[in-house]
Amino acid sequence: MSEHRLRIDPAGTPRATILIVPPLFEEANRTRRTLVLAMRALAADGFAAMLPDLPGQNESLVPLEQVDLARWQDALAEVAAGIDGPTLVASVRGGVLIDHQVKAAAWWRLAPAGGASLLRTLMRARVSADREAGLTSSLESLQEEAKTRPLLVAGNRLSPEMVAQLGTSEAQAVEPLRNIGLGADGIAGTPLWLRAEPGEDAAMAAAIAADISAWSTTCGIS
Questions:
Q1: pTM for the full model?
Q2: Nearest to 98 by CA among 149, 165, 146
Q3: Quick one: 77 and 138 in the same domain?
Q4: 29 touches 98 (CB < 8 A)
Q5: pLDDT digits (tens, 9 = 90+) for 64-78
Q6: Which residue among 62, 106, 110, 127 is buried most deeply as judged by most CB within 10 Å?
Q7: Cβ distance 111 to 182 under 8 Å?
Q8: In this structure, are 77 and 125 located in the same domain?
Q9: Domain with 12 in it: what CATH number?
């Protein structure tokens, strides 16, 4: 895909390239600064790190309503195909829904989220906004509306195909895979994707980079 790709390289030859797959929709904006900090930490540890824009997201010229999960999956696989050397895919939240077509040496997933859960969150935000504006809507009415025309939810205009795919999409099996959550048994940090505004967590970024690096070594990549 001809979209912007943020890439941070190490001083020398990369041990491997970490392909960062961000959360989807507004969650991507809330986590981007922390993911970039993690990329810098990975580069300091000898990895190249890449964070591509998806069609319809960030600075993309493609209207979001022309995009669905299948297009994102294809776009991400195309990005990965252009990477030299071993690739480790690191996906966050809804990013896990589009990472399985990538040809990679390993996968790392943080706080995986299903498509139906993401869709409900977006629709509830729309219902709440409608209520504040004196309008009446429901999850059921929005589902019906989305069958025939693009649906505006939380500032995102989603195609009928996107809504339908989100409703049934789950992370697909890949291997080798490390699934990790937040908390005492996972990555120490706060769920940035729940914040009202973008923020950053330097300690969380360092923990993400360290865990990815350790998983890479476990998989024999570097």
A1: 0.93
A2: 165
A3: no
A4: no
A5: 999 999 999 999 999
A6: 110
A7: yes
A8: no
A9: 3.40.50.1820
